[in-house]
Structure formats: structure tokens, C-alpha cells
Amino acid sequence: MSQVIGKPINRVDGRDKVTGKAKYAAEFQVPDLAYGYVVSGTITKGKITRIDTSEALRLDGVLQVFTHENRPKLAWFDISYKDQDAPPGSPFRPLQDATIKYSGQPIALVVAETFEVARYAASLIRVEYKEESHETSLEANLHRARPQKHGVADLLKPPPPKPRGDFNKVYEESPVKMYGRYIHAAEHHNPMELFASTVVYEKGGKEPKLTIYDKTQGVTNSILYVSQVFDIPFKNIRVLSPYMGGGFGSGLRPQYQLFMAVMASLELKRSVRVTLTRQQMFTFGHRPATVQNVALSATADGAMNALYHDARGETSRFEDYTEIVTNWGGMIYPPENVTQDYKLVPLDVYTPLDMRAPGGVTGMSALEIAVDELAYELGMDPLELRLKNYTDLDHNTKKPFSSKELRECFRQGAERFGWSKRQFEPRSMKKGHNLIGWGMATGIWEANQMPARAEAALLVNGKLWVSSATADIGTGTYTIMTQIAADTLGVPVEDVLFKLGDTDFPVAPISGGSWTAATVGMAVHSACEAVGKSLLGLAKKLSGSPFKGAKWDDIEFADKQLRLKSDPSTAVSLQTLVDLNGGKAVRETSTGLPNALKQKDYARATHSAAFVEVMVDEELGTVKVTRAVSAIAAGRILNPKTARSQILGGMVWGISKALHEESILDHNIGRFMNHNLAEYHVSVNADIHDLDVIFVEEDDTIVNPLGIKGLGEIGIVAMPAAIANAIFHATGKRVRDLPITLDRLL
Amino acid sequence: MNSFTYIRADSVEHAVNERVAETGARFIAGGTNLLDLMKETVEHPSRLIDITRLPMTSITETVDGGLRLGALVTNADTAYDKRVQERYPLLSQAILAGASPQLRNMATNGGNLMQRTRCYYFYDVATPCNKREPGSGCSAINGFNRIHAILGTQLLSQDGMPAEPQCIATHPSDMCVALAAIGAVVRVTGNYGERTIPFADFHRLPGNTPHIDNSLASDELITAIDLPQNGFPKNHMYLKLRDRASYAFALVSVAAALELEGDTITDARIALGGVAHKPWRKPEAEALLVGKPVSGESFQAAADALLAGAQGYGANTFKIELAKRAIVRALGQAAKLEPTE
Fold first, then answer.
1. Is the predicted ipTM greater than 0.95, yes or no?
2. B269-289 pLDDT per residue, tens
3. Catalytic residue at A662?
4. Cβ separation B245–A433 shorter than 8 A
């Protein structure tokens, strides 16, 4: 019955995006708008002893300067500041008091009639501090590592399972083994769109009423935060985020510009916009720096028998940001002697934040380099070693995977890449000044589904309106939800209007963790089915209705008709049915819930295999990723075009993470120093060459009836290790630290 | 950004007069660097003198067989000029190795010479920096200095003892490295008329006054850059090593140019970028090559001589060896001994 699910249709919002019709948080124009500019602190730890705003306040056009000294009274308890992605701890509160907790901390907001005046006034604010010594170096503070604090975050990010078997003994006695230490730099998300909030203040009412355009991966998260922190009832707040210029995790928590804009708007009783600068984009969450140790051993024939993986990640002094770094090995490899360990080192930095495949790409980058090292210890082809240790069981939980076409990813990826022609020996291929290397790695990410709600309405004109308060962070949510709705009720995509990013719509969770397609997809499907059921009810009311005895399972929707499966010529048009509804649209709201009963006996995950070719100029240390193939097993592919784009984006970021990206923290100063896009290097077009994506589809109705697993993270996971392994194959040099900049290869 | 006044100059004389009328006045052309620095509050000019309408927008022949590049010709138009491509391909290559097409379309030749360092600390007003604020200290020397200088940083105290450097910033230009190798001449106009500055003397080492990047007097405006007759069109190479394939400043770059008679070197030029406060040349190192056959050995000797006295500061120490290898490679490629890929 599927008509458009699985078809590579163009983005339904594509035209609006390229013509500029699609508006982002800082682009909504409202009358009488005031502009806020955030003043960033310059020390890393200590206290503000004096903050002099008088010169700024004297400037023509300046409306107010907010600091910790004059901010309004706000919610008292930590719980009010906890958003849906808040880790255990005490959330950062902007302008709370004179305490400085990290470098770049927002310490004041200047509000003025124009952005330019606000920015200039910000430079006139004089601040005196009493500095305290700080600690920002993960490597220098490893001795302070401690287990994560527990909280609701454990549900999605469980600590590693308890050790099993006897790692030490088996590792000691094994004939073949490896050990490596892997250090990753911190990274910042750097979406193109700067964080911004435009708060529209509705005048005249008794209570303040706000409409907020926010850059966020979840309008529900923003409304919750604003309501709690500023004690405003939900009914007086509406948050909208119809488009997002890249999220990558950075919008999973309300960022401080939202707080600032709302505070200023309420105090000044006026509409206010606050936009952060690119430099300020480096003053909130980031992918944490990590130090990992991996040790693997195997029998002489390559059967892995012991696995050790520990990780130390940085966090702030006030919250325990956690991610799953070390649990993956036990999910994809079968050794029975396993120790996985994860600890945190609190430092004087802002709390880290989920960034594309948080923890997953971190842990798998170390583990999959380690597996390559083990292959070379064994003298065994790296792909053969992975096939030798292939398992259909998640060994952490002993549950089978609901589906796992990784073996087919290996086969198709290897074939497309030409892996069989690879010579085992490093340094076996050369062209001009360049050594050529081939490497591969495995990827894994969870296939989660959360509860979400959606509304569907068959309108009186026969068009289908569907809405949910989810987000499209650039991934194609608008498009795939349109496809799901279209197929569920048998209407063409042109007749579907899917809307999102508005708290007036039914509630949906933050968009992250690769769960949006499954989560909102099931809600949309369920709401459309509910409309379908109502339509069947109307069909039964037709005089002499042929549907009188028909049950839900007896009918289907296609070609804008409701019809009998057994006899498709027995059909009634949807327009006819909605006309029967007394001039009203047929409207239903429904919840998509994960089927826990069905899911509980299975591990659910997406998998990937990445094959990479690099050219390394050994004398000069330069690396070029000349081609890469990613084979992806991620359930049912709703739209091969948007899906491919998403995987390509992940692959590009994988190259970027492997070779370029690093937020440079100067530990003397305690500050990220390369805080602009000229010095924070992300891959540019010239770095990207031949990329190829293969989807190995899986028919998996355990994850959800639509078979959706999600694609947000899996594209990046295997790439950095595959690149590092290819560099080893090219040069014989094993680099375990990322990014692999040229000085690491000299 | 501070508030400032703006005026459009209608003649070179007008521009120069405006400049000396106000201490805080600055010329602006493409603005690709100055505007960034103003937004970061590193630069706070009180007055901007827009020079974009001045008649310095063409590339013309000089009497001694070279080319005169107008100060306002964009980097892109210079790089793609047929005469430049044919007679000064090294310069064209170097320009195209820098920035991005959008920036090269805006940036002018005069502005390229005037661009300031990309040192992280210079850009961040929250940190001490002797170049931005003389006497405040250098954060880079004991900080994260992977992109910083290895040559020309050492200082001697008054009694002749080694002293702590004041600044280890580098000049970020690619174009200037090629101009240094070719031996260009900078034409400037000031209150007292016109003068020329040999390229090697234009940019300066930090010394005890790292806030001064070059030898331009405060009243002077760059009007043109003169290229000598020989642009080494046959044997040349601009090799740039950086952290990504485009839109990144050089960790090390080499402009290499050779004149050959058969296999014998009759003239050699080597300029380095990304390693010092100015494009780095050392005539003694170049002289080592003259009369020698093209060979890895002679190139290595020149590279060693050019890097003699280089000093690393930790994260940037790798640049010493990298620069040597890059020189050998670039000379080999200039001599066509080695492939360019």
C-alpha cells in the first residue's frame, strides 16, 4: 500500500529554504523591537567584585543593563532550571550572582534600541574580578576522576554494566593482545545559525504574554524552562521554532540567550531579541574532551576473549554530563571477560552537551582503532577479524538484536569499495609523494523511540493537516512526516501540510538521539489512523453503505479514497466522507507510544560499516580522504534522498572529527581560544572527495510498526576510526589521538 | 564595535591628509580584516577613510619590464590577470592558496600587505597580548602556540643576553610570501610625497615594539606594488601546508623560485610564510644554491641554512622540521625534479 514512503522525494520545505521564505529565530520582525547584547566574562574562576555599567547606561539608545546586581527575582530551586536534557547536578543560572564558574560566562545583558548601540555599550562596561585558580585540563586532573552522579539521565545513558568474567586473567594469558590510550579533543557544535531568541511581548493584558521564536531542538523544552524560571503559566507563552540552521545537539538545552531575552522582555515590557556572537557560541555546551584506555586480547585464531574499555570525560563543576562511551564493545563483540568503566572529571568549564553521536563516536573511535590494532597483532585482515567475532547478541544484556544487517553492510560495503584487493601489509601502496591506505571500522547507535503526540485533520477541502511540536533540525522531518501522513491516509504529498516547531501543537520531545523519525513518525501515523477510523465511522453512515460490516483491518486508504482491501473498486472518496462531517474537519489527536512489551526482549540499534581510502604525504604529514563508502543498516529508509544527505553529513563530520576539529583550551587562561570559524577548523569542500552511501534495509517491526530506526547519529560513528586505520595502513604509523593533524604524522 | 565617522577620499592627497588629521583614522578598502578586528574591539578607529574610489585599480607595465599592481586591485583580479598568470605564476598560485573566493573578491592588494596576525590571543581582548596592548605580556609564548613563529622571535637584552621574546605572532599572508620571493617593491605616498620600500623592509620583526607590523609611516598610503622584470615563470612553486585543504592559514608555506641553466642553479629565491612576523627570507641560504646542481642535497643545505637559529615554543616546534621538508619539496618541484601531487 505504501506509495511515497521509501521514495526519494524532494524536501517539502526546500523551496522556502533556498528562497529565504523560511524564517529563523533571529529573522522574525516585530514592531518596537529592542536588542540585547550579552557581555561575556573574561576570567575562568572567581568573583565579580565590581561591575560598572554607568558609562553604558549614559549612551543614547541604551534601555537597560542587566547584571546579577539588578536582575529580577527568579525561581529559587534548581528543579525549575532543569530542562529535558539536564544532567544530574545544579543547572547554570545566568546572572545568578557574582560567581564566575567558567570562561566566557555571560555576566550582563545590554538592551538598546539597536543591535549596534547594544554592542557598543557592552564594550563600555567595566568589570573588576577577584580571580581564583582554575583547573581546565582533563589530562592533568585524571586523578580526580569519579563515577557519574545518578539521575533520570541514567535511563537513556546508563552507566557501564558490571564487569563480567575475569578480564585480567584472560588478557594476561592470551597469546595475542593490544593496549592503547586514546585522547580526543573537545569540540563545539558550530551550527551555521547563531543562537537567537526573539521574544514578542504582548502589551495590554493583565498578565505578561509572550510569543518566543527560539533556536531550539525542542519548543516544549523551551516553554517548560521559561514557564518554570519566570513563573509564567503555559497558557501565556507560545514558543515557535519552525526552522533551525543546524542543531547537532547544541539546541537540546535552552541556551542562555533565551533566558536573557525573556528576562529583558518581562522587565522592559517590550519585545526583545538576543543573538549570540560566533565567539559566544563557544561559551556553552561542547563535546567533552576524553581520555580512553582500551585493551583487547584474542586466541591465536582471532576469537576475541577479553575486552577492557575505560573512559574519563570532562564535565563542569556544577553538572555531571554523561554519555555512553564504553558500553559499545560489549554490544558488538562477544568476549566473555569484559570490564567497561566510565568516570568524570569535574573542571572549571561549562557543562558539556550532546553532540552528534555523543559518546558513540567517541567510544567507537577508540574501540575500532583498537580492533584494527588487534587485527595487526594477529596478522589478520581487519574485516575478517570483525566477521570472526560477529554476534547477533548484545552481550551486555544477552538480548538478541531486533534486527542487525551489519554482516550485509560489511559485504556490500567491501564489495563497493574493492576491499578484497587490499594487501594486508602497511605501506603497500604508493602514488607520487603519497602513501595510500585502506581502513575500515564498524559503527553502532541506539534505535530509540520516545512518546510523542500529533494531531491530524482531514480538512473540509480534502487536504490533510498534520502537526506536532517536534523540530526539523535540518534532517528532513518536514518531508518524512509528510510522507508518513500521505501514505497512512492515501493522499498525495501535495495534499499534506505538516507543521512543527510550535507549542500550540501536540507535545513532542526534544529532537535528538536519532529518535525523531521513529518517535514523531509513530505519532503522526497514529493520529492519521485515528482520523482514518473516524472516516470509516462516517463511511458506515452512507446510505446503503458497503462498509457497514467492515472492520479497520478490512479497509485501506489509497488514491484519496477509503476502500475495501478485498475489493478496491468498493471505494468512497475522502472528500465525500469529510462532507458528511457537518461542515467540520475530521480531526484527531493521538499519542505514539513505544511498544515496551514487544521491545523489552530485544536490543535495538543501527549499524554501519565504513571503508575509507586515504592518501598521506608522509614527509609533510598531510592527509586526504580520497574516497569513503558507508554501508548503513538502519531499519526502513523513509526517504532515500534525505537519508543519504543525512549520512553524507555524518561522513563529512567524521572526516572533520578525524582530521580537523578541535576546540583549543588554553589551560593557563582556562579559555577556548580558537573561538571563530577561521581557526576552529571544520572540513571544507576541498577536503571532501568521493563519498558513497549504501542502505541495507531491515524489516523490523519490533522497533515500531513502521520499522523506523533513525539516522541522525550513525553516519559519523565509524568514520574517524576507519580514517585512522587507513592512515595506519598507508604509513605504518598508529595515531590514537584525534584530530590527526599533520604534526601528529611527522 | 565603537562608533566612528566615515569619509570617502576623492584623491590620494585627500586620503593622506585625512589620515594625519586624526590619530584614530584608518584607511579602509575591502575591509576583510579591519571589520573583523573592529567587531572584536581589537581595532577601534575613530574615523574610516574609504579609499576604494581612488585611482589605484589597474595593473600596468612598468618601464623596466615589470608590472605595477594597483593597491586597490582585488586579490582575485590580480591572481587571474593574464600577465600575472604568465609572468608571475608564483604570485598567482600564492594568492589563490589564501582565504576563500569570496574574501579574495573583496580583499585588495594593499590590504593584503596590511592584514594583521591571526594569533588567537591578539584577537581575544580578554587575554594579554603585547601586539594589541604593549606591555600586557604575551599569552602565546607559554600558551597554545602551534600556529606561532619559530624564526625572528629572539631578543637580546641591553647587555647582549638573550631576553624573553615580546611576541611570537606570524604574518598570515600567502601573497606576501610570493612578493618577498620575487623581490617586489611597495610604493607609498605620504604627506611628504612618494617613496618606495623594498619588500623585505616592508614588514618588520616584533622586537620590543610588536604592535608595529610594518615600516609604513602613519601618514602613508600604499598605492601600488611593483614587480620586477623576472617573475621566475619557468621554475617556481608555492607550497602551503595547513590544517585543511582550503580556508586555513599556513602552518608553513614556501615560495620557491629558481633560474636554471641546464641543471645548474643561477638564481634562487626562497621565502617562508607562517613561521615569522614577516615573510622570511635569508639571502645567505639562497646564495648556497647558486652554482650548484639541482639536487636534494643542495636543497637540504639551503633548508638547513634558512632554518638556522629557529626556535620552537612547544606546540610549534614541529614547524622547524616541517619547514625544512617543505623547502626541499618546493625546490624539488620548482626544479621539476618531483611531481606536484
1. yes
2. 999 999 999 999 999 999 999
3. no
4. no
